[in-house]
Amino acid sequence: LHFYIIHLLIVATFFIEGHPATEINSPESFFFFRPPSLGFPLVGVYAVWLFVVIILYPLCRKYDRYKSTHDKWWLSYL
User: Fold this and answer.
1) 29 — phi, psi (to 5°)?
2) Of 19, 12, 55, 59, nearest to 36 (Cα)?
3) For an engineered disulfide with 14, which of 33, 42, 49, 54 has Cβ 3.0 to 4.6 Å away?
4) SS3 per residue for the chain
5) Does the pLDDT at position 19 exceed 90?
6) pLDDT (mean) for 21-39
7) Which residues of 22-55 are buried (b: 16+ CB within 10 A; e: fewer)?
8) For residues 56 and 2, what is the distance between their CA atoms, to the nearest angstrom?
9) pLDDT value, residue 58
10) Cα–Cα distance for residue pair 19/14, rounded to 1 Å
């Protein structure tokens, strides 16, 4: 889930910074939604990391409770 959340954040940042849709696939960059001018300083990266951890922590706790209280064979694969 963290990959999807981080990707949604980078797409939102892309449009919030005012980049047009024509720059989604920039020739200078190998990745979509990643022009050379887009980025965060190290403090920003830590802030994004902390935000994602805070968002996912309750979901992980809920999943842990579910997995520990249910004895289904397929849960061992997740």
Assistant:
1) -125, 145
2) 19
3) 33
4) CHHHHHHHHHHHHHHHCCCCHHHCCCCCCCCCCCCCCCCCCHHHHHHHHHHHHHHHHHHHHHHHHHHHHCCCHHHHHC
5) no
6) 80
7) ebeebeeeeeebbbeebeeeeeeeeebeeebeee
8) 8
9) 96
10) 6
